[in-house]
């Protein structure tokens, strides 16, 4: 099952809109919801992306797949998996901090986000300055 670009954009827009509406209601104190409930649209969207990514990575395990083709592709997909897990760790730590489940410093909450941003900058630099030598 493949989604078209328009479907992916619509799905992203829908989950973002739902998250922002719930966030505004929470910040205006109109809804006394738990912070973990506010982030449910983000986690549903991330779960969909993780499942799609894992299925694509598992496709490499089928018989008849030539591992020499797409070695860069698996590295990129592994980076996407790490990035999604870092984002998930940041969201969980942020919700725990906002809900006052933990007394950890805010700087520690942002460590997964900083690692994600540094990794993104390295990936961007690699894609811009990498010269393929064939």
From TrEMBL:
It holds the Pfam family Tmemb_185A. It comes from Alectura lathami. This is TMM60 protein. The lineage of its organism: Eukaryota, Metazoa, Chordata, Craniata, Vertebrata. Keywords: Membrane, Transmembrane, Transmembrane helix. The chain crosses the membrane at residues 36-58, 78-100, 106-129. InterPro entries: TM_Fragile-X-F-assoc (IPR019396).
């Amino acid at each position: 099952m493949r989604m078209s670009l328009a479907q992916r954009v619509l799905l992203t827009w829908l989950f973002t809109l739902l998250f922002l509406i719930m966030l505004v209601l929470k910040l205006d104190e109109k809804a006394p919801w738990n912070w973990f409930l506010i982030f449910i649209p983000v986690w549903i969207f991330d779960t969909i992306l993780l499942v799609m990514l894992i299925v694509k990575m598992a496709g490499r395990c089928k018989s008849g797949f030539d591992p020499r083709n797409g070695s860069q592709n698996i590295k990129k997909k592994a980076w996407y998996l790490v990035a999604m897990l870092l984002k998930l760790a940041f969201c969980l730590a942020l919700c725990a901090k906002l809900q006052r489940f933990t007394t950890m410093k805010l700087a520690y909450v942002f460590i997964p986000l900083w690692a994600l941003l540094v990794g993104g900058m390295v990936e961007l630099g690699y894609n811009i300055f990498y010269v393929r030598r064939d």
